[in-house]
Design brief:
There is one protein chain. The chain folds into 2 domains: 133 residues, Cytidine Deaminase, domain 2 (3-Layer(aba) Sandwich), CATH 3.40.140.10; 207 residues, Dihydrofolate Reductase, subunit A. 26% of the residues lie in helices and 24% in strands. The strands form 3 sheets. A 9-stranded mixed beta sheet has the order 11-10-9-8-12-6-13-16-15. The protein has a 5-stranded mixed beta sheet with strand order 2-1-3-4-5, with helices on both faces. The two termini are 41 Å apart. The structure holds ligand AOF and zinc ion (ZN). Zinc ion binds next to loops.
Length: 352
Amino acid sequence: MEPIQYMRYALTLAKKGRGTTSPNPMVGAVLLKDGKIVGRGFHSRKGEPHAEHMAIKEAGSMARNATLFVSLEPCVHFGATPPCVDTIIREGIRKVFIATPDPNPIVNGRGIKKLSEAGVDVEVGLCEREAIELNEIYNKFITTKEPFVILKAAITLDGKIATGTCQSKWITGEEGRRFVHRLRASVDAVLVGINTIFVDDPLLTTRLTRGKSPKRIVLDSDFRIPGDARVLGEGCIVATTSSQKRRINAEVWQLDGDEMNRVDIGALLREAGRRNITSILVEGGRDVYTSFLKKRLVDKFYVFIGAKIFGESGIPSVGDLGIRSLEDALDVKYTRVKKVGGDVLITGYPHF
Ligand code: AOF
Ligand code: ZN
């Protein structure tokens, strides 16, 4: 097998931590000795061993002179666990392939440097693109202290998110909805606007797949949420500008208002970041999409195009963004277009 195949295996192991490592990254490690895999590991959650530790533990004395494949630069700090570089050096690992440096300011190249200085042969960049994409949430959070924002929408072929009578169940088929539940299991929080609560009364939990349910944030500037909304309960957050004191089964964040006295999205993201929410899945509706796009606070798009047409009376996916000329349009770079059941899923990143 080629080195790239071992690194791919390390990336596969890393993904076992999806949805549970936050605020830490997903990391996988493989130890190779005389052509045989003698250790493997992944980081499962904060406080649990780092991937390298797990792989080295499995290998035991076989770690000496072995080659390590790790999907993220080994750490140099005493955190929940001792520095991985020290263990690698102490155990006599001869060569280390690292997919990508750790952007954490307390690591950021220091791990690579320390290993090289100790005489370990270090190679960086194998499967780098995949490794960076795998931890796109972590990479933003660790460098900005703000969550990675994913805008997810299900639209018709003519760009509508509901009929004129506000019906939207369902624009996509079962497979698309299952994909969304997997997304929910992989993020720290989902977010919807108060109109969505009024119209759909959603639960916003993870049900169509195994995995944890994220926190549920309701953008409710005027604090109008009904006391019996199904979204309420453990893990629900109501973000408002109102100073009203209401007993409600949710955490309430009173935040600064923007020029229209709606919750300021920038303030919301800063508050979420302070509370270690590293990712937010924005699930609509139109006004919420509009607010995030107006402020250019979207990091990634997942747009499902269902195989339906609603026509002019349907509700458009995004409201007015003040765009009048073509040069002002928001550009998006599509990275993946995929058929999911009978629908199309477009993955993209803002180019604005
Ligand atoms: C590694 N291997 O498997 C992981 C690393 O809270 P702690 O002590 O676990 O430290 C978290 C930081 O450690 C995290 O921000 C990142 O820089 C690094 N994560 N490093 O060598 C791993 N999960
Ligand atoms: Zn470590």
